[in-house]
Amino acid sequence: MKKILLLLSLLIFIAQVHAVDIPASTSGATYSGKIEGVAIGFFDHVGIGLPAGDTCNGRKSLALLTTHPQYKEIMSVLLAAEASGKIVKFYGLGSEISTFGSGYCVVNWASLGNFPLW
To answer: 59, 42 in Cβ contact below 8 A?
Structure first.
């Protein structure tokens, strides 16, 4: 019984350490980790699901605007990350969306893997 309680305590601690809330800003926050899904048509844009415990501005989704000049390239990174389970890194997260509500973090740049310069 003692071992089970110790194991449960350790698992709860690990889950709390992993949980991240990224405060988006116009200066650009960074997220590095796996994604849980990609939704086309998320308020006419692309929604990116974050794993359990990870949030940005308290929300479990990021947004990629379809008007982004590198929309197709970032979509390729997203789909590769989702299919392979690899880490994706988003840099320059801001919260500028006004067409469907405020508070969603907007992806500006993305890399597959842990790109060292961001």
So the answer is: no
Encode the chain (118 residues) as per-residue pLDDT tens digits.
544 434 334 344 433 334 566 655 544 688 889 999 999 999 889 999 999 989 888 889 899 999 999 999 999 999 999 999 999 999 878 866 556 666 788 899 999 987 777 6
CA distance 59 to 2: 37
User: Could you give the CA distance from residue 1 to residue 96 in angstroms, rounded to a whole number?
Assistant: 51
The secondary structure of residue 50, as a DSSP letter, is P
What is the rounded end-to-end Cα distance, in angstroms, of the chain? 45
pTM above 0.85, yes or no: no
CB of 50 within 8 A of CB of 39? no
H/E stretch holding 55 reads strand 54-56
Backbone angles phi, psi at 96, to 5 degrees: -100, 0
Alpha-carbon gap, residue 85 to 113, rounded angstroms: 10
